[in-house]
Write a structure and sequence with these properties.
The chain has helices at about 10-15, 25-35, 50-65, 105-115, 155-165, 180-185, 220-230, 265-270, 275-290, 305-330, 335-345, 350-370, 395-400, 405-410, 440-450, and strands at about 45, 75-80, 120-125, 170-175, 190-195, 215-220, 260-265, 295-300, 375-380, 415-420, 425-435. It has about 475 residues and is of the alpha/beta class. The protein has a single domain (about 5-305, about 355-455), classed as Amidase signature (AS) enzymes, CATH 3.90.1300.10. The protein has an 11-stranded mixed beta sheet. A hairpin with a 5-residue loop joins β10 and β11. α2 runs antiparallel to α3, α10 packs across α11 (about 335-345) and α10 packs antiparallel against α12. The longest helix is centred in the C-terminal third of the chain and has 26 residues, at about 305-330. The protein is globular.
């Protein structure tokens, strides 16, 4: 057996079902590793150790008596600190919510608890999942397990770092323009932005109503599928929730991608945001794996990335101001400087500009769906490997181009997985996007790639510091 803290959800659940592993033993392994190593990364902002041990004991007793109720029964997990948890502090990394203790669980937390999961605690985020990385907020930013001098990206920074470091096999993040996929890419884990409306956002502190997505991060695409099986589904309390059947995501992981048609938006990668030579080589190698597995690759032509970015940023900054404008006016000093700057920008957008952006979003989304109708999935890198962890100018939100935002504008599912490592040891990433509500095909492609390559065998090396 591998080290317990590096077991995948799929591996651990099989061992638990076979009575070869106890949820208590597994939970203690994670809590011990967090205690020994997380001071180097800061991936957790609240640890619920005693609660976790109690939930693990309860899961152990129930599994012995009746068997597991789901693949997550007895499996530890954590949550980005914007998911409300009854009785557990939920801060969004902001001084404004330093003492916020919700009385009700978010919809996703309720589902994970009902599945028998074991809550380890809450993960670091950027302030309100938007402003960062910041050092003038409630907690210091999380760090990248592959090199703590580098960023884990944002805003689901602590979530991705915790999974990569072996502090938890499962977590949930949020994605408004890339905040699940960016950290997944930076930390070399799997992270899915589901189809818009497929996973309830009720009880998730909002960033941008029209673009927010809740979704899972784990070590493998298979584990992401297991989490999706639990958290997907209609919620009448979320106005954006879709009332559609939930397929069996795990059963869809056939490993077979023969005949899969892959579209590549080469104009994005070669003309708009040219890839570095190393990232281009990694991407070409990933496409070659799919060709060897029987897929085909063809170019696709989409509207310019800049249009997707401009539309999303215009809409998002106005909605951000709508959410935080009152606090900005009455207690601006409670915000970190990065978020405060970005909120102010939302108050400067005219109504006509917001409406024009919303109208053009429809045009772009239709163009995206028209192209997606000609292929099974689209592939491109998620991002370049992670850079150094350092303060960013607040205006970088509006100036940095992105390979992820277009799929928030379209609402399409998009998965980031690891596809190799740079010379400095930081992960390369592959982004797989699919048709609306065809998350299963996206996960099938990601799973097939992971099983055809050896990247999932490599883990960050963390060593406990000793005091002499």
């Amino acid at each position: 057996m591998t080290d317990l803290h590096f077991l995948t959800i799929a591996e651990a659940s099989r061992l638990i079902a076979a009575r070869k592993l106890s949820p208590v033993e597994l939970t203690d392994a994670y809590l011990g590793r967090i205690a020994a190593l997380d001071d180097q990364l800061g991936s957790f902002v609240t640890l619920t150790a005693e609660r976790a041990r109690g939930e693990a004991r309860a899961a152990d007793a129930e599994i012995v008596a009746k068997g597991p109720r789901s693949r997550m029964h007895g499996i530890p997990y954590c949550l980005k600190d914007i998911y409300e948890t009854a009785g557990v502090r939920t801060t969004a990394q902001s001084k404004l919510l330093a003492n916020n203790v919700p009385v009700r669980d978010s919809a996703c937390q309720k589902k994970l608890a009902a599945a028998g999961g074991v809550l380890l605690g809450k993960n670091a985020t950027w302030e309100f999942a938007h402003g960062g990385p910041s050092w003038d907020v409630l907690f210091a930013p999380a760090r990248n397990p592959w090199n703590p001098e580098h960023t884990p990206a944002g805003s689901s920074s602590g979530s991705a770092a915790a999974v990569a470091a072996g502090f938890a096999p499962a977590t949930l993040g949020s994605d408004t323009g890339g905040s699940i996929r960016g950290p997944a890419a930076a930390c070399g884990v799997a992270g899915l932005k589901p189809t818009y409306g497929l996973v309830s956002r009720r009880g998730v502190i909002p960033n941008c109503f029209s673009h927010d997505h809740a979704g899972p991060l784990a070590w493998t695409a298979e584990d992401v599928a297991i989490l999706m099986q639990i958290i997907a589904g209609h919620d009448p309390e979320d106005p954006g929730s879709l009332d559609v059947p939930v397929p069996d995501y795990v059963a869809a992981l056939s490993g077979d991608v023969r005949g899969l048609v892959i579209g590549v938006p080469w104009q994005w990668l070669e003309e708009e945001i040219p890839l570095s030579p190393a990232t281009r080589a990694s991407f070409d190698a990933a496409l070659a794996v799919f060709l060897d597995l029987g897929a085909t690759v063809r170019p696709v032509l989409l509207p310019p990335l800049q249009q997707f970015d401009d539309v999303k940023r215009t809409i998002a900054v106005v909605e951000l101001f709508t959410i935080h404008g009152k606090d900005l006016r009455t207690r601006p000093e409670m915000f970190g400087s990065s978020l405060r700057y970005r909120i102010i920008a939302g108050g400067l957008v005219r109504a006509e500009e917001y409406l024009q952006a919303a109208r053009h979003r429809t045009v772009l989304a239709r163009a995206m769906q028209a192209v997606m109708a000609t292929v099974d999935v689209m592939m491109l890198p998620t991002a370049e490997p992670a850079g150094k962890l350092e303060p960013l100018p607040p205006e970088s939100l509006f100036t940095r181009p992105s390979f992820t935002t277009a799929f928030n504008v379209g609402g399409n599912p998009a998965l980031s997985i690891c596809c190799g490592f740079a010379e400095n040891g930081l992960p390369f990433s592959l982004q797989i996007a699919g048709r609306v509500l065809d998350d299963a095909t996206v996960l099938r492609a990601g799973d097939a790639y992971e099983k055809a390559t050896a990247w999932r065998d490599r883990r960050p090396s963390l060593v406990a510091e000793t005091i002499s």
